[in-house]
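Non-structural maintenance of chromosomes element 1 homolog
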Amino acid sequence: MATSGFTNTHRLFLQAAISKRLMTEATALDLYSQDNFSDFVGQLNEGLNSVELEFRRAQDEVSGAFVMALFDAIVMADDEAFCISSTAALHEAGKLKNKENKPLALSKKDAESLLDRFVKDQWLIRSAAGAYSLSMRSLLELQTYLKETYDDQIQECTLCMEIVTKGQRCVVAACSCRLHNHCAGTYFGNMNKPVCPTCSSAWTGRTLIGLSDRTAAPSTVRRRRRRREDGGAEVGEDGGQDENGGDEEEDA
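Predicted structure tokens:
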């Protein structure tokens, strides 16, 4: 990282920004608490340029709401698919609302442009079959947000304890074991009869998390149900209880 003009003030501000991931302009100004904030950010980005990072300011409520809606649909995808189709992604764009719960106008063309931008900026990955999933950048930079927001819905690899959205899972539905493909390959490499590291059931490697790059995602948004914090019955996103304990399906 370039050090010319890069002071301890820049370093402290950068540490705070990294810990928060995202912050409002008011929070950023409180952290800096001096004049010439634009010049300060310019110096900060000069120092970050050598490691291909940038401190950005954004005012686009629509794109922010859209990417959060996409993240929610991907993380909550039924049967741990951790991806959604382009049709389902565009359907999410049509449901966007602002903080006042009023609809946000986003045309299909604008939604498609934003999807292209999210892929270009490496927040999302688009598979050969047109399915959108979380990128490595999202999993690394938004790890704290994802774990805090989705808690028991997000999955961690039993071996390396990092988030896993593509990999293998135990054939026993009640078992919590999830593995990255590379972790599974290393762990089971010398076993003639692989068994689950958690429950010791036979491990086939054919029960998957996520979809293969050439498998199309469902055209409808189908979410897993969230559980109440008190451990009660499962509830849907609208707070309504599902009499059968099943999944909620929304037409795309």
